[in-house]
Amino acid sequence: MLTHTLGYPRLGAFREIKKACEGYWKGALDEKALRSASLEEKHRRWRAQQEAGMELVACNDFSLYDHVQDMSFMLGVIPERYKPLCQNLSDLDLYFAMCRGYQGAGYDVTAMEMTKWFDTNYHYIVPEFTRNQDFHYYSRKCVEEFLEAVSFGVKKPKAVLVGPISYLLLGKEKTDDFHRLDLIDTLLPVYMAVLEDLHHAGCTWVQFDEPFLVTDLDDRTRKLYAEVYGVLRQHFPDVHFLLAAYFDGFGDNLQTAMSLPVDTLHLDVVNGLYDLPAVFRDVPRDMNISLGVVDGRNIWINDVNESLGILGLAVKALGHDRVMVSSSCSLLHVPYDVRNEPDGGTLPDFLGPWLAFARQKLDEIRLLADLMEDEVSADAFYGLAEHLKQLEKRKHSKFLRNSDVRSALDALSGEPVGRRQSIAERRVLQQEWLQLPVLPTTMIGSLPQTAELRSLRKRYRDGSLSAEDYGSGVRVLITNAVRWQESIGLDVLVHGEFERTDMVEFFGEHLDGVAFTGNGWVQSYGTRAVKPPIIYGDVSRKEPMTVELARFAQGLSERPVKGMLTGPGTILKWSFVRNDQPLSDTAMQVALALREEVMDLELAGIEVIQIDEPGIREGLPLKKADRESYLEWAVRAFLVCSGGVGPATQIHTHMCYADYADILDALIRMDADVLTIETARSDMEVLSGFAAAGYPGQLGPGIYDIHSPRIPSVGELNTQLEKVLSHFAPRQIWVNPDCGLKTREWDEVVPAVENMVTAARKARHQVRKRALEEG
């Protein structure tokens, strides 16, 4: 059996590429040094796959920022606003300018939109299309990386490309007079030019990622798949086409997928097991199948009995030579290597043997293939025995279950949850209590995590700084942040979250049943990496988590200071979650733990409590038929978490980088008093949907894009506010950035937030002026 994976992590096991890119942006590294760091990381990735025995090794899955943006650059999809920069910037700087925006040398250009990669926490750069879109072969990165792999000694490099139809569907039309799939006839020749270049370089395997094949498609799109791959097959009969879809099964698209003229069809068996009977029965005789039996999204060791059973059925139906073994999807979504965890670190001793990060998943792929051979080696039998032993230990572990938590969950079952008063009744009480102006200003939560803060935290964790001194240092930062916010006139303040490395990891450190890693880095977007907690058992709160510092911050000001929590849906979605019970059960356990925290914050005098739920939309199943059951328990978990407070306590929630139209009804059912959302990068276009739905709560559309180093002017921000006020009454609107500010520098944040406050004041003046003119 051939072995391979669809892709490998690329930020660096110790974030080497993150550091190199950020060094380049700051001028500490030149382009040659950045390219050198990139090549070193590619070598490490290829070496890992070769050492693990992968017969096919992925290339062109590496990226300095985002693989979809790499495709846009390769295909010459450069929006018009960036064209003037082409004369003054190198290709590398132009690439980064499209991802991050650009200010300098007389130019001020906004960044491209960013959104979630299907139902993951990875963010991609959204391609922008016009009716007469020009596609041309602009970047040879794909071919250059293939040649680098050959030069390194990779015997079978497999070039990875986003397939042409999924590439178009990932993008967005900038006008409404065409559909992006209409562009396929002008796009396809550029794909063929790329394939011709690869073929000429000696490439014989190409992986086309077409993840939209697991979503709901219309007949036109299904027909287009057949036409497009028919053309590609006709022109490249000697190239082995591997078509990959993942994150779900093909479902209604299965017959379309099996009819395509490709050599190998990859199936995500972890999430699409239901496809297999039809595949084994109907797959064409000249088509191979790649079975993604190793979970590329979660970190638990493989259930080898189940995987061997699936592989055995596949071999019986198709024959040994037609079956390949792989991960369900790219390993981009998991950390590099369990062995990178420090001895005596944060992972409990019992947990390590149950985990498989990217490097271990390669070994699992190899093990499963070896166990399917006619003659099985002693090493393979040992690997099987070790997996079975650890699976049994985990199944019966005392660390997984807490009777008190389960009793509390049983008591909650069937009980009504949520707040008793309507949102309109609460709004009257909250306004009377908080006395906020029209268009109140606030921030989402976090403030810059400076080198000073990181040093403070490191010294505390190294033991060279006492808990008392660390706490004092954090309080100084909070005090300075509150004083600054008061000085510029913000209406509802934040404490800055200086005590938190990450909005989910922080809570993982304070909950029972949850573990966290020392080096379990996973790319979220660009150079942003997170360390997802590991939810391994029943979840409960050890002790109050945020109350002490929230009370301290509120004591510094007469203005409201928000209590800040991460919601149950987001904690689940941004963690590696146990796979031995339904997600809904784990969600309710987390919600009960957070409910205790919310009520303690209210008792501590916190009048505004924000429960962030940016992950709730990305958890939405890819097929519409599966969505309502998910939304039912996800909304219920939020209501459990937020519903215990009195009517005068204002509950906020925050969401970002998602298609809210798919969940508008659920957002209304969540019954938050204030919802703040990302809208700046998408140019406020989602607001019409909220207005049409009659969204009843107050809304804070982000008018400042925090994922770009650009500093928006007062005029630009006022224009954004005018767009907002064309949809909503002033009393319904809050003024805030898109998201938290931890990744930005203070010299970017201070002028940008000050401009935001000034823009809000100008808008208030205009609102008052219009009210007087209207009598």
Question: Could you explain how this protein is built, in words?
Answer:
It catalyses: 5-methyltetrahydropteroyltri-L-glutamate + L-homocysteine = tetrahydropteroyltri-L-glutamate + L-methionine. Its cofactor is Zn(2+). The active site is at residue 707. The strands form 7 sheets. The chain has an 8-stranded parallel beta sheet with strand order 1-14-13-12-11-10-8-2. Strands 19-21-22-23-24 form a 5-stranded parallel beta sheet. Helix 5 packs parallel to helix 7 (184-201), helix 23 (627-642) packs parallel to helix 24 (664-670) and helix 26 (714-725) crosses helix 27 (746-773). Strand 13, helix 12 and strand 14 (323-327) form a beta-alpha-beta unit. Helix content is 43%, strand content 13%. The radius of gyration is 26 Å and the shape is globular. The longest helix has 28 residues, at 746-773.
| Main sheet: strands, sense, barrel | 8 strands, parallel
Q: Which architecture of the largest domain does the CATH hierarchy give at level 2?
A: Alpha-Beta Barrel
Question: How confident overall, as mean pLDDT?
Answer: 95
Termini distance? 79 Å
Total number of strands: 24
Instruction: Specify the CATH class of the largest domain.
Output: Alpha Beta
Beta-sheet strand percentage? Answer: 5-15%
Helix content: 40-55%
CATH topology of the largest domain: TIM Barrel
Structural class of the secondary elements?
A: alpha/beta
How large, in whole angstroms, is the Cα Rg? Answer: 26 Å
Please list the strands of the largest sheet in the order they lie side by side. 1-14-13-12-11-10-8-2
Number of domains in the coordinates? 2
Shape label: globular
